[in-house]
């Protein structure tokens, strides 16, 4: 069965003066219509580069797609012409960027920016495009939408700017929406509102949602499946319930143990020792082994493949079954 969007063994390098950074190292995952896939990991793990590769907005150079495929409805979009990919962006696959204030143009009103895609891509006249912009702003629950059409990005709060970005992404009815750290720099209450909004829109429109984040708490209630990234690889994939209940990779387990919990009052927070590897000098074997509390000699020498550890569960750890069973 073909998936709506599927990445197959994707490798992306960044070639710099200091050397070649292997930013993505064989990323494989998929998402289907009406499903939410959360991609989790520390900063520098390759999450945003994965999203940019899907959208075709990597800076080339320094980025180079070394190998792999990105299939949308069975077609490899990496093999498409730039014109064909441009047609795909917005209409089929859209993205909400991480920093709304930087992504929005400060010298144009939000009404102009939301309606631009409608004018350019659908040939709407200015009046019709602005009416549609009002509808989109209302859909993402911006109060007094019509009155705020002529406001500029700096006149909106962080949460409202994020809603403007979501409205822009929805303008052309995409089938896949990528949200890259959509709750960064927002307070906890606004984070919850944005996540509820994305979940509601996904349900109403039947979209596939790819949610990129480093915050395990953000995705717990909205994701269907989770892919955990480390050093440019997906090291674990699972449905959200099983991953939180029984992680099958030491890094995932360490991330979950570092979250404050009400039932551990007074205990010091656990931390993951060390730092993520330099992507220009990824260590041999498992890239997590210098930080792993259960590493063995083979972990330093052999790169573990992704193996099935349960129904629709994958883990790239030599000791995955032991981790899963709690014996490691």
What would the keywords be for this entry?
eight-stranded mixed beta sheet, globular, four-stranded antiparallel beta sheet, 328 residues, alpha/beta
Topology:
Layout: E1 5-16, E2 19-31, E3 36-40, H1 47-55, E4 63-72, E5 75-76, H2 82-88, E6 93-96, H3 100-103, H4 110-122, H5 126-139, H6 158-170, E7 176-180, H7 188-205, E8 208-213, H8 216-219, E9 225-230, E10 233-239, H9 240-245, H10 250-257, E11 307-310, E12 313-315, H11 320-325
Parallel strand pairs: 3-8, 3-9, 6-7, 7-8
Antiparallel strand pairs: 1-2, 1-4, 4-5, 9-10, 10-12, 11-12
Description:
By secondary structure, the protein is α/β, with parallel strands linked by helices. It is built from eleven helices and twelve strands. The protein has an eight-stranded mixed beta sheet with strand order 6-7-8-3-9-10-12-11, with helices on both faces. Strand 4 (63-72) and strand 5 (75-76) form a beta hairpin. 41% of the residues are buried.
Helix content: 25-40%
Number of helices, where a helix is a run of at least 4 consecutive DSSP H or I residues: 11
Measured distance between first and last alpha carbons: 36 Å
Unreliable sequence segments: none
Structural class: alpha/beta
Adjacency order of strands in the biggest sheet:
6-7-8-3-9-10-12-11
Shape: globular
Q: Strand content of the residues, in percent? A: 15-25%
Radius of gyration: 21 Å
The profile of the biggest β sheet is: 8 strands, mixed
What is the N-to-C order of secondary-structure elements (H for helix, E for strand)?
Answer: EEEHEEHEHHHHEHEHEEHHEEH
Mean pLDDT: 91
